[in-house]
Amino acid sequence: MYVGVDVGGTYTDAALLDGGRVLATAKVPTRKEELIGSILEAMDNVLENVDKSKLKKIIFSTTMITNLIAERKFDDVDLLLIPGPGLSHAYYKLKPNIHILSGAIDFRGRETVRLNEQEILSTISEIAGKGIRNVGVIGKFSPRNTSHEKYVASIISGKYPEWQIEVGSRIASQLNFPRRVETTYLTCATRAPYRYFINSVRQALEYRKISAEVFILKADGGTLPLEGSEELPVETIFSGPAASTLGVLALAPPGETAVVVDIGGTTTDLALILSGEPLLSSKGAKVMEQFTQVRALAVKSIAVGGDSALKKVGSKISISPNRLGPAFCMGGPAPTPTDALRTLGLSTIGEREKAVEAMAILGESLGMSAVEAARIVTGQVVDMLTAEIDNMFLEWEQEPAYRVWEVLQKHKVRPDIIAGVGGGSEGFVEQIATKMGCAPFIPAHAAVANAIGAAVAMPTMQVSLRADTEQGYYIIKEEAYQEKIRGRSFNEQKALDLAKKSLIEWAARYGLEVKPEEIEVTHQEVFNMIRGWNTSGRLIDVTVQTPRGIAYKVGNGGY
Q1: Helix and strand totals (H; E) in the chain
Q2: pLDDT of 558 above 50
Q3: Which terminal residue of the chain, N or C, has fewer Cβ atoms less than 10 Å from its own Cβ?
Q4: How far is it, in rounded angstroms, from Cα 336 to Cα 531?
Q5: β partners of residue 137
Q6: d(CA 139, CA 106)
Q7: Residue 488 backbone zone (phi > 0: left; psi -120 to 50: alpha; other: beta)
Q8: Which has more pLDDT, 234 or 437?
Q9: If you compute the radius of gyration of the chain from its CA atoms, what whole number of angstroms results?
């Protein structure tokens, strides 16, 4: 038996599955101040009278980090950048939290300009004066030489040991300075709330004496072991959207092509499935219009949900990106789109009388009836989401995987199904589909599709290999393993073969059978080292991962 738990900003969902059968589901309010209580309540509901020793694995997904970013509700972070020569430093000062430090490491990993200690001390004193306690240190070529980052971090920790410090070479090890900056920034901003989430999960499992394998769903639809996930919280930045995509994949007919619209209380997540395969972003996760080094499905999270606060602005109704609480019809403080749906009879959530009251209050100052106000609100939400889907298609169509899919279709085509999941999908998805000329599809268990998607996610493992042919050794990061390179013909292909072989052996120890042709290559880079006028060796970096996807389809059994 498998359990999936999705900890959202509004609700915590859980699903118990046995093979392709859904045995039990639960949806409980998320109490952010007492998160462990929400997790326990959701798990208790689906595990009532279940022998916990029969649980094989539990996979958690969460939209908490996604929601924090969508609503800009995270602690301030200041960044200390060491870009060296090249672009004007004004290019990097796009935000008030950017500080440029002197010093430079070149692309070969050589120090060309020394750091200025007095400048570093002056900068961190300025940061301290603003009350900031979260800082990131990123050098342009730190993956080739980490000394500058480590030196700056040591000065900060020596003077302010209580500060949270992130260094770019540990968070984002691939070259591409802007993406490494953004990835480090988001890691620093989300580490504390993610630690709170992880600790709540640990305590809940301990309280219930659950000893099953526990995983966290990543943004690309793969998984991380619970204990390994705290190192890189940013990997879960689109965990919730990935879960809903896998949920639709598990609940929809095989080989379906569909736009996934997951309408939650706080945000709406969009994703694309092409002939039964979720579309992967070739450039990494895009957050706040900036690309990161987080490998992710091609998804987007929009700060519009069923519980988004509504207010009058001038002569119009405005939809706020913030959630003030539950819908008015559920005892909340402000009118919401959920109240509009309930007023129009398009939803069964909450008390209709309270929903009508909310719409009446909203419409009164605009000279509208409750029904008129509700129609305007639902129309605005549908228009906003439809426009976002159209915008996403412009991005999706640039993805190499989309172009290949289009070629295979032998003509330009767009998906003709809008798959709605999440607690807020009722009422909106049919209107969105109609406006886009598509067919609506709301699967069974749509309200807890995220939890089902988490439960059926295939556990993934990865191996990162770095070879230094000049020094004559290679290391495998995950296993802390180092071995001499034998022979003089070691090249990129041999490094890749070694990484795959190691991954297959490692996966087998955990009961995963993997074929070489199934393995994904998630990163591959070669750097030539020059001594004098000759190539003296190569640095070869390769990362491989077991295949992502779902373990099985989910039928309608169990109910």
Answers
A1: 15, 27
A2: no
A3: C
A4: 65
A5: 80, 167
A6: 10
A7: alpha
A8: 437
A9: 25
Long-range contacts of 365-368 (CB under 8 A, 24+ apart): 365/312, 366/312, 366/315, 366/317
pLDDT tier at 557, thresholds 50, 70, 90: very low
Q: How many other CB atoms are found less than 10 A from the CB of residue 330?
A: 20
End-to-end CA gap in the chain: 16
pLDDT computed for residue 211 by the predictor? 86
The DSSP 8-state label assigned to residue 73 in this structure reads: -
Burial class (CB in 10 A: 0-12, 13-18, 19+), 296: buried
Q: How many CA atoms lie within 13 A of 226 on its CB side?
A: 17
* Residue closest to 231 by CA, chosen among 299, 172, 161, 155: 172
**In this structure, which long-range contacts are made by residues 253-257, counting pairs with CB atoms below 8 Å and at least 24 apart in sequence?**
254/553, 256/417, 256/419, 257/415, 257/416, 257/417
**What pLDDT, in 10s, does the model give residues 195-230?**
889 999 999 999 999 988 899 999 889 888 887 777
Closest to 338 in 3D by CA, of 39, 43, 11, 4: 11
78: exposed, middle or buried (Cβ count in 10 Å: 0-12, 13-18, 19+): buried
Task: List pLDDT tens digits, range 296-326.
Answer: 899 888 888 899 999 888 889 999 888 888 8
Q: How far is residue 428's CA from residue 263's CA, in Å, rounded to a whole number? A: 9
CA atoms of 523 and 172, how far apart (whole Å): 12
Domains of the chain, with CATH numbers?
2-71+194-242 (3.30.420.40), 78-190 (3.40.50), 308-380 (no CATH), 462-545 (no CATH)
Catalogue the E-assigned strands of 30-178: 57-62, 78-82, 98-100, 104-105, 111-113, 134-139, 164-167
pLDDT tens by residue, 251-302: 998 888 899 999 988 889 899 999 888 998 888 887 777 788 788 899 888 8
Name the residue among 410, 408, 428, 409 with its Cα closest to residue 418: 428
Tokens standing for residue 81: 């950048």
Tens digits of residue pLDDT in 510-553: 777 888 888 988 888 888 776 767 767 788 889 898 888 898 88
Contact between 47 and 3 under an 8 Å Cβ cutoff? The reply is: yes
Q: How far apart are CA 381 and CA 428, in angstroms?
A: 8
| CA gap 248, 250 in Å, rounded | 5
The kind and range of the H/E element at 404 are helix 400-409
Nearest Cα neighbor of 419 from 283, 180, 244 is 244
CA distances from 266 to 68, 325, 442 (A): 10, 9, 20
pTM above 0.90, yes or no: no
For residue 234, give both structure tokens.
């940013």
Token pair, residue 165, equals: 């410090």
Q: Is the model's pLDDT at 559 over the cut of 70?
A: no
Q: Do residues 396 and 402 lie in contact, with contact meaning Cβ atoms separated by under 8 Å?
A: yes
313 three-state secondary structure: strand
Which is nearest to 220 in space by CA: 251, 241, 198, 194?
241
d(CA 236, CA 190): 10
Burial class, 107, CB count within 10 angstroms (exposed 0-12 / middle 13-18 / buried 19+): exposed
